[in-house]
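Researcher: Before we compare anything, I want clean individual predictions. No alignment, no superposition, just each chain on its own. First chain goes here; please echo the sequence and then give the structure tokens.
Model: Echoing the first chain and its structure:
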Amino acid sequence: MEGSLKETPYEKRIQRLMTGEDGDQYGFYINITDNIVREVKNPEKACWEDETGRPGGVTHWLQKQIYPYILDDEEEKKFRRTFLKEELLRIFQTGQRHIQLGYRFRKGKYITCYTVNIEMFEHPVDHTVECCAIWRNDTIPYINRVMTHMLLRDKYRMIAVLDIQENTVFVRKHTFENTEIPCDSPLEYEGFIRELSEKCIQEKSREWFRTSASLNTMEENLQVAGIYSFTVYNADRGAERYTYQWLDKEYREVLIAVEDRTVEMEKDPLTDYLNRDGFVRKTENILKKNADRYQFAIIYFNIRKFSGLNDVYGYENGDRIIRSYMDRIQNSTLRPLALGRVAADRFQALVDAKNLEPAALGKLLQYQVKIGEEQVEIYGRCGIYYIPKQCKLDVSQMCDLAKMAKNKISNQYVQPYAIYQEDMRTEYEQKNLALLNLEKALEQEEFVVCYQPVVEGKTGQIVSAEALVRWNSSGEEPMIPSVFVPELEDSGYITKLDTYIDQTVRRFQEERYHKGKRMIPVAVNLSRMDLMNSRLMERICTELQETKVPKQYFRYEIIESAYTIISKEGEEFLKRLRKEGVQIFLDDFGTGISTFETVRDYTFDALKMDMGFVKKIGKDPKRDAIVISIIDMAHRMGMKVVAEEIENKQQSEFLCTHGCDYLQGYYYYKPMSEKEFSKLLDK
């Protein structure tokens, strides 16, 4: 390749890169009637003496110089048909004098596009038919057409060529607004990137964009893979992918393409609905245009125990459930204006508030899906945030508030939705504080173990206690477990707190034992995470063997939902405890969907009825009958019964009348500090 690449104009540069030549024309002059080549024009060779003037030379020349290099079979067939002597004469006889053909031609390592113009005429002396065929290199017009087509078809926002050596970029075409970037003019690359960054890129992404698009970063990646790309969000929150690819590595010329990837980046591939980014952007646009005319609400949905459905029915059926759930929302009377999947089984919808009737959500959220021959019940729940007029929150914050409301649902079987109230924010912040400051709180002994006495139903005497915990953070009001324990359970940090409670209770019991003071059993709660932690379970067993305190003074409570997912190792742990003489209570009995299977498969020393049954005593005859049945069933199975959260005399008398063994609640004793509990025992 002769000459300096950088000295040629833009289109010449592209032509030389793509074709290796400067656009010279080729051609030949032939006698069609006699099938003789009169003359050949070729920049590389003046002529082929052995071809000119020979009968049959036209066919021979085409077979040697043209046909082998035509890329497309159909183009070659068309070319051959046109250059048949009989076909050319037939066309001439019809009165047509001009023919034009187009084809792609391989020349060494290059591919070029040619247009062949054929002009036919009659020789004035011998009246033979002759023609002049001129090959014109149309690679650049072809590239221009293709680039324009790419911009329209594939949503390319820009096509440009970068000369790394000269730090210069030539923009072929772009659709960027509010910029002063010219086309087909040399631009300094750093200034070009700076202009894009300031005018076209989302503010929080600008620094990352400048780093990703820098010459050093780009060339380093090109040297490794030959192609380099990254995706960035523009000022309109649309996604754009910048791709750099060698155009001519020898001359360090790079093709840059900027492609609009908004649709792909904002679509959830599993469901074809929006993903989180797509939902946020669409919701922002709707609110911006209509905030003063309508009231909207954001709803945050999730499917209850979805991971369990995946485990039981497989991930393929789990995906089916997700798709059916979103289709159900989309086709409901909510008529969502935007609907997106933000996590595995979590979805968000923007709705017109007039279409939202919370009381009707139960039918929408609970339905059946057929898997094989089985009808599977799907339970959903949701939180609702009504967007106020002139709301200053961004969409992500609104979604967080809807999620907060969802997390406040206490019993999704009774009411599967919750509406955001302002006091939920304080509780949410406290939960996050629990995760952030757990280690510090344990070190500074901010967690305080409290003891709530349990009385015998027949005598009213204190016979045991349950260890509870309060969090005294920075001198504020103590936080109760319902505020921070769920977050600690979800994060896995609950094991550290349970270890602290267990060791505190053990120390308390050992101190009283060695001082010869009155002792009663104290129960410690174990979470589902504890029953998956082999180190914790082994430590409890070891310390029980080492202590001199009789084992009947130690108890552990397991909530029913934790037992339903217990591992083999967890079952063996509970058996070891009972073998040592430690009693095991099943807590919150009656809340799960596998209640009777739980007591059938494992022997517990006592059942603790869920507080929901106790609170309804005297208000619902059916629930009263269930309470009586639970007490009777437990006794028949050799288990005691504990009722908690007792708040009044009516509840106490009902339970005692029907044989409940142990009673716990504010009606008898509130949770108290270790010091107060010791005084109570010492009376």
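Researcher: Okay. Second chain, same rules.
Model: Second chain and its structure:
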Amino acid sequence: MSRIPTEALPREILAVLPQEPYDQLDLAHRINAYAYTQKVAVLEAEAGQLRTQASQHKNHVKTLERRIENLVMEVNDANEKTKQVLDDQNKLVAEKNALIQTVKKLNRDVAKLESFKRHLLQTLQDEEDSKDSMNLGIDLASDRMISNVLSSASSPMVGGAGAGATPMAAHGLGAAAQSPEPKDGSPAAQGTPKVDGKEFFRNARSRLGYDDFSQFLQNIKELNAGRQTREETLRKAQEIFKQQNADLYKTFEGLLSRHIPGTV
């Protein structure tokens, strides 16, 4: 059996080694077992540390996964909000375009209304001018009728009103508008207030319609012509004046009472 060279080991180790080879083998076996035990302990400690690190990494991974899930949800929410914002923006753009078209249409309508307004004002002005001309013609016709009524008062009464008719040659209503007022001592002056006939006719012409005023003048003509009585004239005048012109009727009644006494 060959011997191991002693120069392979340090002297300090050789000094503590047993002399017998079997003892040396036994020592070597125990040293080897101790070394393996220490190595296993170190490896187990490292394995424990690795398991701890792996668990920590696993927990960290779970945390990251939860964060990723939350971020995915936030991204989805952001996408939904972005989509909603884009939809709202598109709606606003459509509404803006519709409003622009509406404003353009309204501007066109306003321009048409302005043109219609100018045309209407011009038409109204033309109608007003025409009405003024018509009123002037009515006034001239009324003046002619009043002149006819006033002039008829000086003519003798035509027979035909009946025995109850009152003579009116000198006391017709036309004379009331032309003759001077009675003296203060006369019964007519004491019973009714003084009334100017022409002023009454002017008021009646301004407040009555053209047809009503013409009918009223015709009513007076019938009275002056002796074809109807004072009472019939008053009744027809009351129908013409109606309630809203009751003051005119009272004035007219005063004129008749002063110049044409009623039947007894």
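Researcher: What stands out in the second chain?
Model: Residues 152-172, 174-192 have pLDDT under 50 and may be disordered. Additionally, The chain has eight helices and no strands.
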